[in-house]
Design goal:
With about 350 residues, the protein is an alpha/beta fold. About 35% of the residues lie in helices and about 20% in strands. The structure holds S-adenosyl-L-homocysteine and iron/sulfur cluster.
Length: about 350
């Protein structure tokens, strides 16, 4: 068992606490899982600790590079990750150079489950169904690998600073491991990477019970709600979860989250041609969001990643602009996101690996 899954489990201690602390320091501060790099632990013991406590539970099987800049350097890297039981997940690294600073930023999009049970019609992960939840060590390993890779890909000036829980899976369906992972990502003492919770975004299909639990947690991460439709009849067609918690209930839960943490809530809205991109949907969306004022919310419009074999296509540029302008005119803060990784078969939010897809067909 990986030591991250053992933290706090005090039984059957085989190593003194101070050795485990040293191991945690190598793991969280230096991203090292190689005993040969640990000068403060005798080599024989280090070797045993590595074997016992740091099994290779997440392996990078394949990397795809996309969004190359004019120097030919990829700005998006998609990882296909192999788990110990043969399942596969994906994670994505996105590099954002900053012309005003010597440092550049990297965002990691990580997975929380193998597949997903929620069955959203437009989503490639949804098509896989749920295989299983990821353990907290599998989630944390994605972060450690991302730190290592950030340096390898973009050098010492690049900083992994942001994490979005927007890969495969529904975070609220694996809640305890997600909250534990947030603690381990943000802790700046022994067991943690020391990132700011404010730079973490947890995205949910709109499970109201889950949103309430996220609101109860002490960390000030951002909540993103995948809305994708403003009316119940349409949202229920796109997202089965809407039959359990409707638009009204989801927005109320989002507003309560804002009230509790004073963190603006993101509303994710992927524009699907002739389905949810009409002026009427935009009006309704703006009106519903406006009921609580405008300072609690921010809409992210995302071009739909077209899933091969799916009936949905992305909205036209013109219709996207019309939609955006209606929201703006009604005072709703809105950003049009560019979709990263389109040249590598979709990036964040549209993950389902080719091998799994191959199995299906
Ligand atoms: N299950 C969570 C988080 C993973 S999905 C959720 O649904 O929020 C991450 C984001 O990608 C969500 O906003 C999801 O709605 C969006 N997404 C899924 N399929 C997409 C597609 N084909 N095009 C664009 N965005 C998509
Ligand atoms: Fe699951 Fe999110 Fe995809 Fe819906 S959009 S199927 S909740 S991963």
């Amino acid at each position: 068992m990986h030591f991250v899954d053992k933290i706090d489990l005090s039984s059957k201690k085989r190593y003194p606490d101070f050795r485990i602390k040293q191991l945690a320091n190598h793991y969280f501060q230096h991203y090292s899982v190689n005993y040969e790099e640990w000068s403060d632990i005798p080599q024989e013991m280090g070797k045993k600790m590595q074997q016992d406590l740091l099994p290779e539970i997440v392996k990078i099987e394949l990397q795809q590079f996309g969004d190359t800049d004019n120097l030919g350097k990829a700005q998006t890297v998609k990882n296909l990750l192999l788990l110990e039981d043969g399942n596969r997940i994906e994670s994505v690294l996105m590099h954002y150079p900053d012309v005003y600073s010597e440092f550049s930023r990297v965002t990691l999009c990580l997975s929380t489950q193998v597949g997903c049970a929620m069955g959203c019609d437009f989503c490639a992960t949804g098509k896989l169904g749920l295989k299983r939840n990821l353990t907290r060590a599998e989630i944390i390993e994605q972060v450690r690998l991302a730190f290592v890779d950030t340096q390898k890909q973009w050098g010492d000036q690049a900083r992994l600073s942001n994490i979005v829980f927007m890969g495969m899976g529904e975070p609220t369906a694996n809640l305890q491991n997600i909250l534990d992972a947030v603690e381990l990502i943000t802790d700046d003492k022994v067991n943690g990477f020391g990132l700011s919770a404010k730079n973490i975004t947890i995205s949910t299909v709109g499970d109201v019970k889950g949103i309430k639990a996220l609101a109860e947690d002490k960390h000030l991460f951002r909540l993103a709600i995948s809305l994708h439709a403003a009316t119940d009849d349409l949202r229920s067609k796109l997202m089965p979860m809407n039959k359990k918690y409707n638009v009204e209930q989801v927005l109320q839960a989002g507003y309560d989250y804002f009230q509790k943490k004073k963190r603006r809530v993101s509303i994710e809205y992927a524009l699907i041609k002739d389905i949810n991109d009409t002026g009427k949907q935009a009006q309704t969306l703006a009106n519903k969001l406006n009921r609580q004022g405008q300072n609690w919310v921010h809409v992210n419009l995302i071009p739909l990643n077209e899933v091969p074999g799916s009936k949905w296509t992305a909205s036209s540029k013109k219709q996207t602009e019309i939609f955006e302008n209606i929201l703006k005119e009604k005072g709703i803060p809105v950003t049009l996101r560019n979709s990263r990784g389109q040249d590598i078969d979709g990036a964040c939010g549209q993950l389902a690996n080719q091998k799994e897809k191959g199995k299906e067909s």
